[in-house]
Amino acid sequence: MINGTDLRNAMISAANNIAKHKSSIDKLNIFPVPDGDTGTNMSMTIGNAAAELEKVTEEKTAGEVTHIAASALLRGARGNSGVILSLLFRGFSKGTEGMDTLGGSDLVNALGIGVEAAYKAVMKPAEGTILTVSRVACEKGKAAAAIDDDPVYVWSAVCKGAAEALENTPELLPVLKKAGVVDAGGKGLCYIFEGMMSVFRDGVIIENDGDEEEKNASASLSDDFFRNAAAEFDQEIHYTYCTEFIVGRNPEIQKDPEELRTFLETMGDCVVVVSDDEIIKVHVHTEDPGNALEAALVFGQLLTVKVDNMKEQHRKAQATEAAKKEELKKAELKSVEPTEEIGFISVAAGEGLATLFKDLGCTHVVSGGQTMNPSTEDILEAVKATPAKNVMILPNNKNIIMAAEQCIPLVTDRKVIVLPTRTIPQGLSAMLSYDPESTTEENSVKMMEAAGNVNTGMVTFAARDSEFGGHKMKQGDILGLENGKMKLIEKDYVHTCSKLTRSMVNRATSFITIIYGQDVTEEQANDAYNRIKSHVSSDIEVTLVNGGQPVYYFIISVE
How many CA atoms does the CB half-sphere of 502 hold within 13 Å? Predict the structure, then answer.
């Protein structure tokens, strides 16, 4: 029988085993764009559980151990693979609730509850993935338990079933077969099951003896990704005042709001103007907010006004930068009472993007994106620190949506709504369409409709030699993607940005926003802007924004 101590040690062994192999799992990702790789996400997710279990000093029952692990897994879940892993063990926890020890049939019956929950959580479950590996492993385990209830015998069948299912994943997913790899999530699950088996069979916790080079590389990525860019951003501020306001339109005034946009572009940058029949919502950086407000009064009455001195804000940030770095590492968001009606949380990487989302009304911007998916716990802390009865989360990345959705049942004193935005442009468009006069439900619909009208272009680099979708690429090649699909393979990212943007424009295009990243100079960004501006219709408004994001040289929004 498996007792609580056995199970605790098995979970720690599982976390160590996948941590040792996470880099090899990451390399199984079929798409060459650098992202929040599967091995890293799964390792960090179960590593959160191992950390909690290592704190346990007194003897616990099997049911108590699975409860601790499941709670930590859910809160630490990163990426879709991490969320699915957390669901597998949450089901495992439910199936072992109240049990002191576990036999073989107890193990696989509990696993079965987790498999069922994982399948239900995925909108369109695809076979040939971690789901298939978990299901087949469970089926093989149940068949073994019908013969012999010995835990070692049964879990051996689970491991064997998982390995067999993994080898068959290319036959179920053609994209895996074409790339010549097995499913990364399924491979990670096999390492987890094998890590547990080492304890069940031999009483040995697999040690995490990963080499220092990998650890140093990981630390370097994390430090670079989350670095404080206040000083750099200050150098890019050309105008002092961030000015945001809403105008209630006078129905007797027939002037086109585009006239307001054109005027504002003569006196500032980062101009965003959206309108409907009732309001005009404006965001602009300028030296003369009074002039901007005066121009807006031509269209109707000012409903809300917000003006911030950006240079003063960043002067203070620069003066305290060193101390703030240390403080931010240790600081935790504090929970607050939900006193306001609605609040917003966005996920984004880059000081410029964070500032823009906050300017548009987000209370908190959770640091994260492709190279570092935030955990459910990261997002949950931001939710609790948002003083609103209804909290809307904009993940802005398809691999963060599931982690955000796991917050919903974890919060009882306020309602959490996840708007499944898949890109930064979708998130920005959704925030711009928010109407304070509408209900939460109405805004949810309006904001997602706005997000759905945006086409997203991204310019990044190939992280390794690869072949994908009929395209061969070498490590370091510049890649142009439209709505996640490979469109261009080039050598120069400014040229790629211009070429990709022009290919995305059609007769219905009205606005283009170019968001440039931390590795692009202002000169290069202006070069891209001028190339695009000279090749598209003069009726199309083109805006350039310093996002400061990592990984992506340019993020392009076409509406």
Answer: 17
| SS3 label, residue 280 | strand
In whole angstroms, give the CA distance from residue 213 to residue 193: 26
User: How does pLDDT run across 32-73, given as a tens digit for each residue?
Assistant: 555 547 888 899 999 999 999 999 888 999 999 999 998 888
Q: Token pair for residue 167?
A: 């080898």
Pair of tokens at residue 96: 């072992």
Q: Give the separation between CA 22 and CA 26, rounded to whole angstroms.
A: 6
pLDDT digits (tens, 9 = 90+) for 205-214: 999 876 333 4
**Selection from 413, 355, 422, 9 nearest residue 195 by Cα:** 9
For 486, the 3-state DSSP assignment is: strand
The conformational region for residue 76 under phi > 0 = left, psi -120 to 50 = alpha, else beta, is alpha
116, 61, 83, 331 alpha-carbon torsion, rounded to 10°: 160
Q: DSSP string spanning 44-60?
A: HHHHHHHHHHHT--S--
Name the 3-class secondary structure at 489: strand
Q: Is 75 helix (H, G, I), strand (E, B) or coil?
A: helix
From the list 95, 141, 134, 93, the residue with the least C-alpha distance to 115 is 134
To the nearest 10 degrees (0 to 180), the angle between helices 493-504 and 522-535 is 30
**What secondary structure does DSSP assign to 80-136, as a single string?**
HHHHHHHHHHHHHHHHTTT-SSB-HHHHHHHHHHHHHHHHHHSSS--SSSHHHHHHH
Tokens standing for residue 454: 């945006």
Q: Are 214 and 20 in contact (CB under 8 A)?
A: no
Residues with Cβ within 8 Å of residue 357, at least 6 apart in sequence: 346, 348, 365, 427, 428, 431
Amino acid present at 215: K
Buried b / exposed e over 501-528, threshold 16 CB at 10 Å, is beebbeeebebbbbbbbbebeeebbebb
Q: How far apart are the first and last CA of the chain?
A: 61
**Would you state the structure tokens that stand for residue 532, as one six-digit string?**
């695009």
**Whole-structure pTM value:** 0.64
